[in-house]
Design goal:
The chain is α/β, with parallel strands linked by helices. Helix content is about 40%, strand content about 20%. It starts with a strand and ends with a helix. Bound molecules: nicotinamide-adenine-dinucleotide.
Length: about 350
Amino acid sequence: MTETKKIAVISGDGIGPEVVAEAEKIIKRTEEVFGLSFTTEHALFGGIAIDQKGTPLPEETLKVCKSADAVLLGAVGGPQWDNNPKELRPETGLLGIRKELGLFSNLRPAVIFDCLKDASTLKPEVLEGTDLMVVRELTGGIYFGEKFRREGANGEEAVDTCVYNVTEVERIVRQAFEIAQKRRKKLASVDKANVLETSRLWRETVNRIAPEYPDVELEHVLVDNCAMQLLRRPASFDVIVTENMFGDILSDEAAMLTGSIGMLASASMGEGSYGLYEPVHGSAPDIAGQGLANPIATILSVALMYRLTFGYAEAADAIERAVAEVLDAGHRTADIASNKSSALSTTQMGDLIAEAIRK
Ligand code: NAD
């Protein structure tokens, strides 16, 4: 008998509830096909939580998330909350939930589906075989260092400091090596060690840890070179690990390789196997409530959850295969369709993928 796992489900705002409903359909289907067992508990977060509870991240929501094995999140935000004070903005809840759940890395896979190669701005032959994962440090670096203004010799100056300690580098680098071990066993560590002291500490730490993972082939890549190589030879990368700001930029660049924001899954991981899984896209208020949203990013986030938190590789593979099969058969939501008039709705796409899941 399979152990029952608990998933905290946060639909959020805009298209969040629409895409999460399709992901829940997929979870149900994998229970039937693979004999898995889940309980799901829904919680309020983001704009809807501001409206109903007066805060973007209610205590009750944190409790639900902390008592679960993993969190599935749709998206938060929308124009109606944009002019709120900082503590009453949905994005403030996003920073808060990461901190409260101890999430220190962000994982973004970029996989090219053969039939969508033409949706990218890169040539299909360059993209051929691209399947990479960017592992970005989330809690340190220049975004969190001391910031201030001062009077300098030539007028006002602004200072941002970049700080990393060995413990922060070690935990993310170990995680990246472990992820690489479960994939094609290649790790690119990205830094700017020719210029930055934090990068030199980063590289030293990577080199010290590397012998513990002899099966993983390691390369060091300078961040400027990595930005170029992602466009020149994306298929040669497997796992890329890097600090916060470099990761912010490179993960967006890698995302564009695939051509559609509606297809990109992500995970934010803490210690052990705990993780929060969400599509890369936002709440898309422009198409909310119209059944136009592409649910694939959220569905692929479930596959990521199965693989990284639960170790259900077979079910994860089956979800990814089902997505590929449905796309190969020519089915498209409006965002990826060349003929918009024959595009599927959010629920039609979810139904087709659920049906295509089999052992
Ligand atoms: P967005 O990702 O919501 O939308 C950008 C464009 O992509 C829009 O045209 C939208 O219609 C389209 N799009 C996005 N997801 C899609 C999908 N699944 N299917 C089809 N089309 C899709 O980004 P934005 O417009 O900059 O932000 C809208 C709101 O979302 C803002 O309030 C922002 O703060 C919030 N946001 C939240 C998150 C999050 O919850 N993690 C992330 C990014 C943005």
